[in-house]
Design a protein that fits this description.
With about 475 residues, the chain is of the alpha+beta class. It is built from 15 helices and 16 strands. The strands form five sheets. The chain has a five-stranded antiparallel β-sheet. Helix 10 packs antiparallel against helix 11. The longest helix is centred in the last third of the chain and has 23 residues. The radius of gyration is 23 Å and the shape is globular. The N and C termini lie far apart (about 65 Å).
């Protein structure tokens, strides 16, 4: 694993033009795949039933129907090194089976980021935690983990089921992990049979479901297992925004939002007993700045073996276990680069830049905080509805900051891109200083050269069209009423 900057050989293909910024990522080496891998063959995807397909077409989203339900599911176990007390995680089971070199050699470390602190017989985490691997190609793989007790009665060490997929969807894969945890207590054959039935399924379109056949080991009959994908779409599927307000005050959320928007060094820490809390927090913070995307170092849970990443001088958003930070205390204390460090265990900032309260214009801060203050009592623990409501508050602010992009798109080398200088001049006066600062970030650089393309920004474009339509209707009513 290495830190790669925009000037290195891992630089993504960003067209060179004024105001465009290359991206920096904390990337995983991508070992070359064996040319022939007969053990990794996948069955053909099953056809989606007509009601599911019809509903997907009605929603206008059928683009994921031909993507496999998951790339790979592994069981990661622990073994004790000879003449050492350390426990080492390793892949003890993989479906589909991988022969030759493992394409994700760092996967076990992220499944057991706290392997140095696990003891035999300790209680097993039952909540799901997640991580993101970024390959040298820039492609992301999401990992969703669930710990279980080993079926081996001689072992008191836990194991981890990890679903690896190119789709980020916490709720979707939570259902799968629930079923795997249930079948784990039955037998390995039960797990393998269920995986054989599900891997051939396509990922359902948002709001749709797929069915898999599963043998009920009590009755001996085949039963349908339905797995439904949330309606929100991929942008909000892997986060739980309502949880932010269990861990932060509204003021703290606003300061963290402004810090993420400015691409600063941001470290979130908590005890190794709360990995789900840590990964959920970091993932949720990264989502708030949509349509911008966090393009710098991004590690929701940092394994102990990689703790030196928090000393990197470049912007990052990292979740680390509190117990691991003493190993780099001296480096952090001597570090002259500013750092925003929030500790979830004490619910407080341990280090800061000092200007967090002034990162956003006062008018914007008041708008966001007042909207959140009104919304929080209405949050009803429905993840989809809460995600949408919370996201819309921040999306409204981002619309005011970026929504006039359409007036400043130009043709550049056959593509439609944002002409930054006219955009800045046209930005509302109270937002202009913020827009000028944001225009220097990597996330804005990627946004400016990509906003003219279809795909990831469609939800923002639709939101912008909705706002413009409402404004037009309002002007019409005032004029002719």
């Amino acid at each position: 694993m290495s830190l790669s900057s925009g000037k290195g050989r891992d630089q993504p293909n960003v067209r060179s033009r004024p105001n465009s910024v290359a991206t920096t990522q904390f990337r995983l080496p991508s070992p070359s795949q064996p040319k022939s891998n007969t053990g990794d063959k996948r069955p053909a995807l099953k056809k989606v039933d007509r009601p599911t397909l019809a509903r997907a077409k009605k929603l206008g989203n059928t683009d994921t129907l031909d993507i496999p339900f998951f790339d790979r599911i592994v069981i990661v176990s622990l073994k004790r090194q000879e003449e050492k007390d350390d426990l080492t995680p390793y892949v003890s089971y993989s479906f589909p089976k991988v022969t030759g070199q493992d394409p994700s050699p760092f996967l076990p470390l992220f499944c057991f980021p706290d392997s140095k602190r696990i003891t035999e017989g300790q209680s097993v985490l039952t909540s799901t935690y997640s991580f993101v691997l970024t390959e040298v190609t820039g492609d992301k793989q999401y990992g969703y983990c669930r710990r279980v007790k080993s079926r081996d009665k001689k072992s008191a060490l836990p194991q981890v089921y990890c679903v690896v997929s190119k789709l980020g969807s916490l709720e979707l894969y939570n259902v799968l992990l629930d079923k795997l945890a249930e079948l784990h207590a039955v037998s390995e054959a039960a797990v393998h049979g269920f995986l054989s039935a599900t891997i051939s399924l396509p990922i359902p379109a948002p709001g749709c479901r797929v069915r898999a056949k599963q043998l009920n080991h009590k009755t001996g009959r085949l039963e349908d297992v339905e797995i439904e994908r949330p309606l929100d779409g991929a942008r909000l599927e892997h986060v739980e925004l309502n949880k932010l307000f269990q861990w932060f005050t509204i003021q703290q959320v606003t300061e963290l939002f402004g810090s993420v928007l400015h691409e600063r060094r941001i470290l979130i820490s908590c005890s190794h007993h709360h990995l789900a809390k840590l990964s959920s927090c970091v993932s949720s913070l990264a989502t708030l700045i949509y349509p911008l995307k966090w393009e710098c170092i991004y590690i929701p849970i940092l394994p102990r073996q990689m703790i030196e990443a928090v000393t990197a001088p470049t912007p990052y958003l990292i979740g680390a276990m509190t117990e691991d930070l003493p190993a780099v205390k001296r480096e952090l204390d001597e570090d002259t680069e500013p750092l925003l460090h929030f500790d979830l265990d004490t619910a407080s900032f341990l280090r800061s830049y000092g200007d967090e309260r002034s990162l956003l214009p006062p008018k914007s801060t008041s708008m966001i905080q007042n909207e959140l203050q009104s919304l929080i009592p209405c949050l009803h623990q429905d993840m989809q509805a809460d995600n949408t409501a919370i996201s819309r508050i921040f999306l409204t602010f981002m619309y005011k900051l970026l929504g006039h992009y359409k007036d400043h798109l130009i043709d550049f080398q056959g593509a439609r891109e944002l002409d930054t200088e006219p955009y800045l001049r046209a930005t509302r006066r109270y937002l202009r200083p913020l827009a000028e600062r944001i225009s220097e970030t990597q996330s804005f650089g990627i946004f400016s050269v990509s906003i003219g393309e279809a795909g990831d920004y469609d939800q923002f474009k639709n939101f912008t069209e909705e706002k413009l339509a409402n404004r037009t209707q309002s002007v019409f009513r005032r004029t002719f009423s």
